[in-house]
Amino acid sequence: MNTRRDEAIALATAVAEDTRGAKADVAVCVPFPHLEAVGAALGGTHVAVGAQDVYWEPQGAFTGEVSVAMLADYCSHVIIGHSERRQFFGETNDWVRRKLEAVLASTLDPILCVGELLEERLAGRMEEVLQRQLHALAGVNLSPRLTVAYEPVWAIGTGETATPEQAQAACAYIRKLLKGLCGQDAARIRIQYGGSVNAANAAALLSQPDIDGALVGGASLKAADFAAIVAAAG
User: What's the pTM?
Assistant: First the structure.
């Protein structure tokens, strides 16, 4: 929940300029009110546009919610199950599953977030949490259009970052779980790391074999910082 309209346009324009020629795929996921303006600003550039949430019902009396069809007019990607949605708004694994099914049935590409709380990490329950979150998707026809973002909640906005080894171990476990859910297609599903990613730690994190990219939070609010992370992905 950052930026006013003009700020969002300026930031997106700077991101497009500063990441020109990037080898990595680049997308910005913006607040609902800015989707049309940012989409217009980024038209014809290499930067894709995404939303930060979606609701699974196609239409109806769900005041305040935004459907897949509504989003499809303005963007190509959408985040599902972000830790803040789970933590602050009570989003359950069942809700996440419903949202994912609705998005996969559309033209939008989903970015699915999973990850454990600090107390779960300290209790040695990281694998248990990831298994529960991903096994809730059993029976969903998972597609290589899916991106899974591992975001340990204890490393989001705290300045704490999982070590490259910790991040790799979690992402490798996610890959293993995905293989159980969708077989060989698991190798084609992107797995990102998200959790206080910045220019200083991006290269070490992105060099890990099971980390295909980054879901960037605070560092994405400064175009130069975000561009440095994109460069590290190349």
Answer: 0.96
